[in-house]
From TrEMBL:
SUPFAM superfamilies: Thioredoxin-like. GO terms for molecular function: antioxidant activity; oxidoreductase activity. It comes from Roseihalotalea indica. Pfam families: AhpC-TSA (PF00578). This is TlpA disulfide reductase family protein. Residues 42-176 form the Thioredoxin domain.
């Protein structure tokens, strides 16, 4: 009889210990808006000038040469489907914004992979290689886009794929 009671008690204890937590509490604790994530990433005070970029020939891209221009710096990878899906809208946005922005698509992958990918596509924005580990930039998922003002300061971080060619997005980019 004692064995029977101990067994029932043990199963009851395991059942309550393994039960799912209250979902409303869990959701409230983990639900964070994209704006909060972007603000947190931006407020980490990333020094944009510490990001090492090279063109597809291996030449260093100087941040000083970009000063005075707004920079749209998109971090992506050849294996990332959402990254590739958003590229046509990036192309359209770069055409609409014209000289107001420099569009750069930066990958941490091997230079040959980036070259092959870029060579198979017809985008006018510049594909670049970054030597800076993405974790050093507080980037833990891609695509992630840094919007950088004329003074070379990171003013906004956008995490995830976006339709960059929408009129409200274009207006937002113009007003940064």
């Amino acid at each position: 009889m004692n064995y029977y009671l101990i067994t029932i008690f043990s199963f009851s204890l395991m059942a309550t210990a393994c039960s799912r937590p209250d979902q409303s509490t869990e959701k409230a604790e983990t639900e964070v808006s994209e704006a909060e994530v972007a603000e947190a990433a931006t407020s980490a005070e990333i020094d944009v000038s510490s990001i090492e970029l090279t063109d597809l020939e291996g030449n260093t891209i100087s941040w000083e040469s970009l000063r005075g221009k707004k920079v749209f710096l998109n971090f992506w990878a050849t294996w990332c489907k959402p990254c590739i899906v958003e590229m046509p809208s990036m192309q359209q946005a770069s055409e609409q914004l014209g000289e107001d922005y420099v569009f750069l698509a930066a990958s941490y992958e091997e230079l040959d992979k980036i070259k092959t990918f870029a060579g198979q596509r017809d985008f006018s924005f510049q594909f670049v290689h970054t030597k800076t580990p993405l974790e050093n930039l507080n980037i833990y998922s891609i695509p992630t886009t840094f919007l950088i003002n004329e003074e070379g300061e990171l003013v906004e971080t956008v995490i995830g794929s976006r339709p960059w060619n929408q009129s409200e997005t274009i207006n937002h980019l113009k007003n940064l």
